[in-house]
Specification:
Strand content of chain A: 15-25%
Number of domains of chain B: 2
CATH superfamily of the largest domain in chain B: MetI-like
CATH architecture of the largest domain in chain B: Orthogonal Bundle
Radius of gyration of chain A: 24 Å
Strand order of the largest sheet of chain B: 2-1-3
Oligomer: heterodimer
Helix content of chain B: 55-70%
Radius of gyration of chain B: 32 Å
Number of strands of chain A: 14
Structural class of chain B: mainly alpha
Order of helices and strands of chain B: HHEHHHHHEHHHEHHHHHHHHHH
Distance between the termini of chain A: 65 Å
Largest sheet of chain B: 3 strands, antiparallel
Largest sheet of chain A: 10 strands, mixed
C-alpha cells in the first residue's frame, strides 16, 4: 500500500518536473566568477532586489577564469548572463566566446581593488618597497653582483630598515587573480628596481623573457606559503604564526582592522583615497562582463547592470565603497557606455 | 592409571587456584591492558566529541540572539518623496540607500532628546549604527503605505553587526579602538541606549527564517533559503531513492537468479557506496546540467545527485534487512499457496520495514550533510530569494545548509563566523532528530526471532 503511494508520487514528481522543466523560463539573472568581486556582486544583488521588482540575481564565486569559461559556453537561458572578473578578459577567452556564439560582450569596470600587506596587530611595523619583497621571496637574488640562491631568513637582512623578524609570507596561490597582480606589481617591480633583472638578463645572455621568468620565481624553502583558500585562511595562518605577513584585499583588511596591521608600500598607506589617486602602487581594476544578447531575454539584466555602476551603488559613499571598493574616477563614462549598451570591439 | 595421574594431581595441588601463576598473571595483565586501551579509546572519542560540540556551541549560540534598536523615526518627506506627489511609482525611484539618512537623523535627534553626551562620537558612528537591512525595511513599509510620509513612527530596526557584537563579547573596548568600522564611542552609545531600553537583545527568529544577506549585512543573514533548499532536496531523495532502492534490493534478494551478472551488480553497488561524493557532483554537472539542461543552483539537480549517492546505502541496508527475515516465513507463505510476490509484499517486506526505514533515514542524514557534490552544481551561490512551492520550486535557485556553512566561513565580517557555527548547530539538530527517528522506528517495529 505504502509502496504504491510512494511509487505513484515518484512518478508524479518526475512527470511534473518534466513538464515544469520544459515550460519554465529563467526569470533571475545568473552571475558567476571572481571571488574578489563576489562580495560586491552580492551587495549589488541584494540592493537590486530590494529596489526593483525583479528577483535577486544568483551570484556564484569560483574564480575569474572559471566564471569566464562558463560565460563563454554559449548564448541562451542555460548559460550565465554575467561573469565577474578581477582581471580583463583575455584574447584567448574572447576567441572561445566567439567560437560559441557569444559575440556581443559588454565590459563594465566597477572600480578598483587594492592589495595590501598586513601582519598581526601586535607585531612590528613594516615599511616595504617592492624591492624588499623581491629580495625576501625571490628564488634567486643578486648579492654583490652575483646571482645566487636566496638564503635570507630575516627581514632586516633584506633591508636594514626592516625589523629583525623571520621572513614568513602568506601569499595567494596560483589559482588566484591576486597572485598575478602580486607577481607583476610587487615581485617583478622589485626585481627591476633592485637591478636583479638586468643581472638575470646578463646571466642568460641578454634574454629578457627568461630574466622576467626568473624574477617571478618564488622561493620554495617554506619562507613563502601559497594560500589556495581565501583571505580567511590567510588570517587564520597569521593568527597562529604571529610573525607571518599576509597578502589581503583592501576590503578584507578594512573588515578586520582590529586583528591586522597594514604595512606601507613605497611609503604610501593603502586606503581607498590613495588607491583612487594612484599613489598606492598595488591595485587593479575589477570588471564584470555582460552578454548583450541576453538583455531583453532575461528580465532585469539591463537594470541590474545600470544599477551596479550607478552613483548610488559604486560611487563614493555608496555601499560598495563602504565595503572597500575604490570608486572609479571615470564612472560616468562607464555609465554612459552601459546606457547605450556598447559592446567590446 | 592412577599412578600416572598422581604426579600431575600433586603438581596442580601444590598451589591454590586463587594464587595465579606467572602465565596466568601475564594473561590477566594483558586483558587488563586491553580493557584500559578500550577505555582510553572511548575517552578519546568522547573528549573529541565534547570538544567539537563545545567549540561549535560556544561560537554559534550567539547567532540565535540579535540586537534590535527601537527609536522614533521621522519619515522626512523631502527624502522619501522629493516630488511631493505621494505617487508610489515616483517614490519607488528613491533607492533604499537614501533612507540611511532618515535613520541617522532619527538617532541624532533621539540622542539630543535624551540628553546623552558621549565624547568622540562621530558621524560615522551614527551612520554605522543601523543595519543596511533597516533602510530596506523602512522603504518597503513606506511604499506599502504612502500615508506614513511626514509622520513619526516607532521603529524597531536591526543594528549593525558591530553593535550586535558588543553584546556578544565579539566586540570589546580594546578591539573597537583598533577597528575601523566601530569605535569606543559607539560602544558607549550602545550602552547608553541599552540603559534607556532603546536597545534589546532577543531571540533571533530571522536567523532561522530569513535568506542569506550580502557581506555588508552579516546581521541580517539567515538560513531560511538553505533550510528550504535542503528540505526540497531531501524530498526528492526520499521520493526517488526509496522506491528505486527498495525495488532494486527486493528484486536482487528475492527474485534474481544467482549468476555472474548479479554478482557483478552486487560488487558494483558495494563499490558505489564507497565512491567519493565529489565524483557524483562531477557526474551531476555533466549529466543533469550540461546534458539534460536542468538549471544551475536548483534543488532538483542537487536532489538527483544526492539520490545517486544515497542509492547504494539504501540498497545495501534494505538487502541486509530482507536477509534478516527468516526463510521459514517465506516457506510458510509459499506453503499455504501464496505467490512469490505475495509472500514478499505481504510477509517479508513488512517485517523488513524497520531495517529499510533505518537505512533510508541514515542515508538521508548522510545526504543532508553532504557538501562536496553540491559545490559543483552551483549550490554555493548567493541566493536571497525564497524558492517557490514545489514542484516549480525544485527548479528555482536555492542554497543548502552545509553549503551555507561553507559559504559563510569565507566571508570577511567576523559576524559570519558566528552564523556559520549557528547553522552547524541547526544542521546537527536536524541530524540528531533524524537519527532519533531511525532509532525509534527500529525499536518500535523491530521483531526478533
Amino acid at each position: 500500500m505504502s509502496m504504491r503511494i510512494i511509487t505513484t508520487s515518484a512518478l508524479a514528481i518526475i512527470a511534473a518536473s518534466a513538464t515544469v522543466a520544459t515550460a519554465q523560463s529563467r526569470d533571475q539573472i545568473q552571475v558567476a566568477g571572481s571571488s574578489t568581486v563576489l562580495p560586491y556582486a552580492t551587495i549589488a544583488s541584494e540592493a537590486f532586489a530590494e529596489n526593483f521588482d525583479f528577483p535577486a540575481p544568483v551570484v556564484e564565486g569560483g574564480g575569474s577564469s572559471a566564471g569566464l569559461k562558463q560565460f563563454c559556453e554559449g548564448v541562451g537561458e542555460g548559460t550565465i548572463d554575467v561573469a565577474n572578473a578581477s582581471r580583463q578578459i583575455k584574447d584567448s577567452e574572447r576567441e572561445e566566446c566567439a567560437a560559441n556564439g557569444v559575440a556581443n560582450i559588454m565590459e563594465v569596470r566597477i572600480g578598483y581593488d587594492g592589495i595590501v600587506f598586513a601582519s598581526d596587530i601586535d607585531g612590528n611595523d613594516f615599511v616595504f618597497t617592492p624591492t624588499d619583497w623581491f629580495m625576501a621571496l625571490g628564488k634567486n637574488v643578486v648579492v654583490d653582483g652575483a646571482v645566487q640562491e636566496n638564503t635570507f631568513t630575516n627581514w632586516n637582512e633584506v633591508n636594514a630598515d626592516l625589523p629583525d623578524q623571520e621572513i614568513m609570507a602568506f601569499i595567494p596561490g596560483t589559482k588566484h587573480g591576486t597572485r598575478e597582480v602580486f607577481e607583476e606589481k610587487v615581485i617583478l617591480q622589485g626585481c627591476e628596481d633592485s637591478g636583479a633583472m638586468a643581472a638575470f638578463a646578463e646571466a642568460n645572455g641578454g634574454d629578457e623573457d627568461k630574466a622576467e621568468e626568473m624574477c617571478m620565481e618564488i622561493r620554495t624553502d617554506g619562507k613563502s606559503v601559497d594560500i589556495d583558500g581565501d583571505y580567511t585562511e590567510t588570517l587564520a595562518r597569521i593568527d597562529s604564526a604571529k610573525n607571518g605577513i599576509g597578502v589581503f584585499g583592501l576590503s578584507f583588511y578594512e573588515n578586520n582592522t582590529d586583528k591586522l596591521k597594514v604595512a606601507t608600500m613605497s611609503g604610501v598607506t593603502p586606503s581607498t583615497e590613495t588607491i583612487a589617486s594612484g599613489e598606492y602602487p598595488v591595485s587593479r581594476p575589477l570588471f564584470f562582463y555582460v552578454k548583450k544578447d541576453h538583455i531583453g531575454v532575461i528580465p532585469g539584466l539591463k537594470e541590474y547592470t545600470e544599477f551596479f555602476v550607478s552613483d548610488a551603488m559604486a560611487g563614493p559613499g555608496g555601499p560598495l565603497s563602504e565595503y572597500g571598493l575604490v570608486p572609479d574616477p571615470e564612472l560616468a563614462a562607464t555609465q554612459a557606455a552601459v546606457a547605450e549598451e556598447a559592446v567590446m570591439q | 592409571m592412577t599412578d600416572a595421574t598422581g604426579p600431575i594431581a600433586r603438581q596442580a595441588g601444590s598451589r591454590s587456584l586463587l594464587t595465579p601463576d606467572a602465565r596466568t598473571k601475564k594473561r590477566n595483565a594483558a586483558e587488563a591492558r586491553f580493557r584500559a586501551y578500550g577505555v582510553a579509546a572511548i575517552v578519546t572519542a568522547v573528549l573529541a566529541l565534547c570538544f567539537l560540540l563545545f567549540t561549535i556551541i560556544r561560537d554559534g549560540h550567539s547567532a540565535f540572539q540579535q540586537t534590535y534598536a527601537s527609536i522614533p523615526v521621522t519619515l522626512q518627506a523631502e527624502i522619501v518623496d522629493p516630488e511631493g506627489n505621494r505617487d508610489p511609482a515616483e517614490m519607488a525611484k528613491v533607492y533604499s540607500m537614501s533612507y540611511g539618512r532618515i535613520l541617522d537623523d532619527a538617532l541624532t535627534q533621539w540622542i539630543e532628546a535624551e540628553g546623552i553626551e558621549i565624547e568622540g562620537l562621530e558621524a560615522s558612528d551614527i551612520k554605522g549604527f543601523f543595519s543596511g537591512e533597516a533602510q530596506a525595511t523602512l522603504r518597503s513599509q513606506i511604499l506599502a503605505d504612502p500615508e506614513l510620509v511626514g509622520t513619526t513612527v516607532d521603529m524597531t530596526a536591526l543594528t549593525s553587526s558591530r553593535v550586535d557584537g558588543m553584546f556578544k563579547a565579539r566586540v570589546t573596548e580594546e578591539s573597537a579602538a583598533r577597528d575601523a568600522k566601530t569605535s569606543p564611542a559607539q560602544i558607549a552609545l550602545a550602552n547608553a541606549m541599552k540603559d534607556r531600553g532603546a536597545l534589546v537583545t532577543r531571540f533571533n527568529t530571522g536567523f532561522l527564517t530569513k535568506p542569506d544577506a550580502s557581506d555588508n549585512r552579516a546581521e541580517a543573514a539567515g538560513i531560511g533559503v538553505a533550510i528550504l533548499g535542503s528540505l526540497y532536496m531531501m524530498l526528492i531523495v526520499l521520493v526517488l531513492a526509496l522506491p528505486i532502492g527498495v525495488a532494486a534490493s527486493i528484486y536482487l534478494e528475492e527474485f534474481a537468479p544467482k549468476n555472474r551478472f548479479t554478482d557483478l551488480i552486487e560488487v558494483n553497488i558495494s563499490n558505489l557506496a564507497a565512491v567519493p561524493s565529489i565524483v557524483f557532483g562531477i557526474l551531476g554537472l555533466a549529466a543533469f546540467i550540461n546534458f539534460a539542461g536542468l538549471p544551475r543552483s536548483a534543488p532538483i539537480v542537487g536532489g538527483l545527485v544526492l539520490t545517486l549517492m544515497t542509492l547504494p546505502t539504501i540498497i545495501i541496508s534494505t538487502r541486509a534487512a530482507l536477509k534478516a527475515v527468516p526463510p521459514s516465513i517465506r516457506d510458510a507463505a509459499l506453503g499455504v499457496g501464496a505467490s512469490r510476490m505475495q509472500s514478499v509484499f505481504h510477509h517479508v517486506l513488512p517485517l523488513a520495514m524497520p531495517g529499510i526505514l533505518t537505512g533510508t533515514i541514515i542515508g538521508l542524514a548522510q545526504a543532508l550533510g553532504e557538501t562536496a557534490p553540491l559545490l559543483l552544481i552551483g549550490m554555493v551561490a548567493f541566493v536571497s530569494t525564497y524558492p517557490a512551492a514545489p514542484p516549480e520550486g525544485f527548479f528555482d535557485p536555492a542554497s543548502a545548509l552545509p553549503v551555507q556553512v561553507y559559504n559563510w566561513t569565507q566571508r570577511a565580517d567576523p559576524a559570519f563566523f558566528e552564523r556559520a557555527s549557528g547553522a552547524i548547530i541547526v544542521l546537527l539538530v536536524f541530524l540528531l532528530c533524524m537519527n532519533l527517528l531511525a532509532i525509534w522506528l527500529r525499536r518500535k517495529f523491530e521483531r526478533r526471532w
